[in-house]
Amino acid sequence: MRGADGLVRYDEDLRLARGLGCNAFRTSIEWSRIEPREGQRDPAAIAHYHSLLRSMRAEGLEPIITLMHFSYPAWLDAQGGWEGQAAPKAFARHVAFIAKEFGQEVRWWLTFNEPNIFLLGWLTPAFPPGKRNSLGAVRVVNRLVEAHQDAYDAIHAHDPDAMVSFNMYTAEWSLGQPPLGRVESASEQTERRLLEEETIHDAFGRGGRKVDYAALDYYAKIYLSLPVRFPRPDQWEVHPEGLYKAIKRFYVRYKLPVLIAENGMATGDLAPRSDGWTRAAYLRAHIAQVQRAQAQGVPVIGYVHWSITDNYEWGSFSPRFGLFSVDCRQQRFTRVRTEGADAYAELIRMAGLTRSQAP
Questions:
Q1: In this predicted model, what pLDDT tens digit does every residue of 100-157 receive, in sequence order?
Q2: How many CB atoms lie within 10 A of CB 239?
Q3: Closest Cα partner for 140 from 209, 81, 225, 224?
Q4: Which of 74, 151, 264, 319 is the most exposed, fewest CB within 10 Å of its CB?
Q5: How far apart are CA 173 and CA 306, in angstroms?
Q6: Tens digits of residue pLDDT in 274-294
């Protein structure tokens, strides 16, 4: 399966983004493509990413590059993956190569995509590697923090003016308490701490904060219970004010400009949502909250909608997040414009909601 075939059709997707009025485009440089075997880099993959970055620049799109969007090389997994001691140095070595190879073309970097969601692979069998091992998750946090700090230094060694961060999944959280009369086990208590946003913030600030801007992903209000069971994306509760609260929260903590690295809404295979929300209404409601934060002095430096096309999400092709729908399941790759794309283009053209449109 080829997902939405963006690896091949990136020129088309970049043209679509530019056609909406976008001036930036977020994507990844996939580690396992660059280094499929330890110490052996693929010239064809390197050439591919140079071509991608040239196309982005040609379309007037600023690259925002993620260095690990969940996946990583199989050879690293054979060495213990992100629980193993080898992972941080292997990642830092890779990032040093990427910074040298592509640094002239990239200024904005994200080391890890949603490290708190990555941890779910050790808290629930629904996410890879599905280990259900809270102590393993603690080890992974420590490895990610070390790797992020080393990667930050590696990028800045090549380009002192680079902008480096990581993007964290945030939500308007509701974490259910155990039933009256039942005490959480030690493992559940560890899981609860790992799920708390402050835990990841504190971990990545350990030994001196190494971020040049704050980056967050926000979608909805999320209800969780222990053991962890994440609701289906098309059933996430739309809660626009939560984005405003998240922006303020991240700014208060970091005192740095804030990038909204992801924001979007899922439908289930394009079916109307039971709550009546449309993608266009979702976009307008959330941009209103961005403007609300900006009006209060928060320096929001960018907004990146997730995503330009439908793709493989949360272990399925059913959740549809795209401004352009794609029938990935049937491997029919025609990009079909949605009303969300029209709304997004209008918001970009008008630089947000006008006063008369504001709620």
A1: 999 999 999 999 999 999 999 998 888 888 888 999 999 999 999 999 999 999 999 9
A2: 18
A3: 81
A4: 74
A5: 20
A6: 999 999 999 999 999 999 999
The label of the residue with tokens 């928060």 reads 298
At 256, list the tokens. Answer: 């740095």
Average pLDDT over the chain, rounded to whole?
A: 94
Closest to 59 measured CA to CA, from 17, 102, 9: 17
First to last CA, the chain: 42
Distance of CA 72 to the CA centre of its chain: 15
pLDDT of 356 > 60? The answer is: no
Give me the residue label for tokens 């996430």.
236
Percentage of residues in the chain having pLDDT higher than 70: 97
User: What is the phi-psi region of residue 156: left when phi exceeds 0, alpha when psi lies from -120 to 50, beta otherwise?
Assistant: alpha
- For helices 43-58 and 10-20, angle between their N-to-C axes, nearest 10 degrees: 20
CB neighbours of residue 186 within 10 Å: 9
For the chain, give the number of residues: 359
Cβ 270 vs Cβ 320: under 8 Å: yes
**Strand 332-337, strand 324-327: pairing:** antiparallel
Amino acid at 354: T
- pLDDT at position 359 over 80: no
